[in-house]
Amino acid sequence: MPSSLADAVRLTAVVEYLNAQGHKVFLLTQTQEAKQFENEFLEVQTLRWVKPTNADKNIIRLIKEVILGIEIFVKLLVQKNKTYYFFTSPPFVSVVIGIVATIFKKGSVILDVRDIYPDIYVKQKVVPENGFFHNLLKKIERFIYKRSSVVLAATQGLFDSIKKRTNTKVLLFRNGFSNFFTISETKKLKFTVVFHGTLSKFQNIELLVDIVKEIDVLKPEIDFYIIGSGPKQVLFQDMPSNFKFFGRRSNEETAVIIRECNLGISLRDDSQISKDAFPVKLYEYIGVGIPSIATPICEGGQVLSSLGIGFNVPNDKSEIIRLILELYQNKELYERMRGNVILNRSDFSRAKISNDVLSQII
Fold first, then answer.
1. What are phi and psi of 168, to 5 degrees?
2. Cis before residue 314, ω within 30 degrees of 0?
3. Cα–Cα distance between 174 and 19 in angstroms, integer?
4. What pLDDT digit, counting tens, does each position of 45-96 carry?
5. Cβ 146 vs Cβ 103: under 8 Å
6. How many C-beta neighbours within 10 Å does residue 4 have?
7. pLDDT at position 257
8. Distances (CA, A) of 180 to 34, 88, 255, 334, 340
9. At what angle do helices 58-78 and 92-101 cross, to 10 degrees?
């Protein structure tokens, strides 16, 4: 189960479900802290060679994923056969190499897909569409689906796309929020809007910067907290006093910060990938009991709108600013939306989602 810190937190609910059912779990993870949670039902081996991150340049990340995949391959080959092999992708290349190792083992593969490759590579211009490498990657993609007994898809959009590409059983397995994200009645003295996550290609950080600067002029009593890291953090130059940048924080630290904020925001670009997305940050805003605003019109945003727990709008600066100001000024509207979040919150927990899905396959 190749895993970064975020992946490890997300998959904690999977491990907990399996342990609760009496299954022993052998966990391969890049999260060093996981070692402390070993018990009679959980054995942890850490992957130490490299750690691919979203902040890496494409070629560097690709090289790291190959090296990570080789480490996974070696560790799986020397292990005794397992009943199930659970992989989460990305990191796509690492997962492919790991799944190749299962050819020499007994046991069923469960593939958890968070992003579809090679689509991401085409969008990021790593490979040209319909070229030799793109067609090769599509064959590799079909191979890992065929090797799997079941494929889990993080969003309805991913589910629909994968169903068209394979005859393997596909189940919807949404993300959800972890136990770190709890509700706090203590809020910042000033109305605070929070954005957290990787500051990379698909995030509309340019729009976020424009909104922060304009609201500083219109309503300087509204603050913006930004948590995360990535290539686009270089855009945070000469920011006004209503802006605070925390950089990358652990999931625990992130949860503590955002639970004291008033409004979550998720701004992504207009790519099809973003339109099919249900960003994890939206689940985590629900977890801490605050409304949110999401762009563009997307799967996750439509859920917010349908439940009255947030707004889903295009990447329109004026409209987003209008909604932020309305939620700040209209206390009745804000409290009604916050009440709706709390009412629906339990349906979005990672533990509930994991139990509902895994009970169908294990």
1. -65, 150
2. no
3. 20
4. 888 877 777 667 778 888 899 999 999 999 999 988 888 999 998 889 999 9
5. no
6. 19
7. 96
8. 15, 21, 6, 24, 20
9. 20
Question: What's the rounded Cα separation, in Å, for the pair 330 and 252?
Answer: 31
Tell me the pairing of strands 263-267 and 25-29: unpaired
- Token digits of residue 82: 């397992």
3-state secondary structure of 31: coil
Q: Give dist(CA 56, CA 58) in Å, integer.
A: 6
Residues 6 or more apart whose CB falls under 8 angstroms from that of 332 comprise none
The answer to whether 327 touches 291, Cβ cutoff 8 Å, is yes
Distance between CA atoms of residues 287 and 36, nearest Å: 25
Q: What tokens appear for 299 in the block?
A: 């799967």
Answer for the pair 308, 331: CB distance below 8 angstroms, yes or no.
Answer: no
Residue 76 structure tokens: 């799986």
The values of phi and psi at residue 83, to 5°, are -70, -40
Look at residues 151, 178, 160 and name the one whose alpha carbon lies nearest to residue 89.
Answer: 151
pLDDT at 5: 45
Which residues of the chain, if any, have pLDDT below 50? 1-5
Token pair of 285 as six digits: 């805003």
pTM for the structure as a whole: 0.85
* SS3 annotation, 82-99: CCEEEEEECCHHHHHHHH
User: Roughly what angle, to the nearest 10 degrees, separates helices 92-101 and 132-147?
Assistant: 50
Unique residue bearing structure tokens 């729009």: 207
d(CA 15, CA 27): 9
AA identity, residue 166 = T
In 3D space, the residue among 253, 265, 272, 315 whose CA is nearest the CA of residue 290 turns out to be 265
**Cβ-count burial 232-271 (b if 16+ within 10 Å, e if not):** bbeeeeebeebbeeeebbebeebbbbbbbbbbbbbbbbee
Tokens matching residue 6? 């975020």
Secondary structure (3-state) at 335: helix
Please say whether the beta carbons of 177 and 349 come within 8 A: yes
**DSSP state, residue 270:** S
Q: Where are the beta strands (DSSP E) in 97-163?
A: 108-113, 148-153
